[in-house]
Amino acid sequence: MTTSLPAEIETHRQPEHEINPQFLERWSPRSFSDQEVAEDVLLSLFEAARWAPSGSNNQPWRFIVARTPEQLAKFHSFIMPLNRIWCEKAPVLTLVISNTKTPKGTNNPSHAFDTGAAWGYLALEANNQGLITHAMGGFERDQAREALNIPADYELHAVIAIGYRGPAEALPEALQEREVPSGRREVNEFIYAGQFE
């Protein structure tokens, strides 16, 4: 099902097996334009996340969204400086967290696994909507927990920048060189037959 890809993608990504091109076209640019994201478009990303698979249908994922200048400033306060260089232009930031407990109050061993699936669905729908996303692990978790009033039974995973793509030239020179789709390991490097080898 892989069809012709944009030159930028085809230069850096070649699948070994036939897949839907959306999986190749989604990547994580850092250059954002200042174009606002309409609410209905933004909500479509979370609608996609809503339908991610979930162990026992617990749906442990939660997204704290920042869109106003005040909300964004609060997020900027706990994002590490090297990420703030580029993510401050993004019109939307969201913190991905997950409930470590089930509705019955027991430990949920699949909370992070399920929440990763929800983030993946969100990222693919963002690409379908003409948006870009970039997930960041570089933020101060304790500061974020305090600033956003997050209870102790929620784990903090990533801050995601969401918006429309800007020109690579808008980034600092060192980041311009990295503004290309990344490659991936070959399939045979991460699957094992019958047991771990």
From TrEMBL:
InterPro entries with a match to the protein in the record: Nitroreductase (IPR029479), Nitroreductase-like (IPR000415)
Record domain Nitroreductase: where: 25-77, 88-164
Record keywords, A-Z: Oxidoreductase
Tree of life domain: Bacteria
Pfam families in alphabetical order: Nitroreductase
Gene3D superfamilies: NADH Oxidase (3.40.109.10)
This protein's record includes keyword Oxidoreductase: yes
GO molecular function terms attached to this record: oxidoreductase activity
Family in the record: Belongs to the nitroreductase family.
The protein, known as: NADH dehydrogenase
Organism: Paenibacillus pectinilyticus
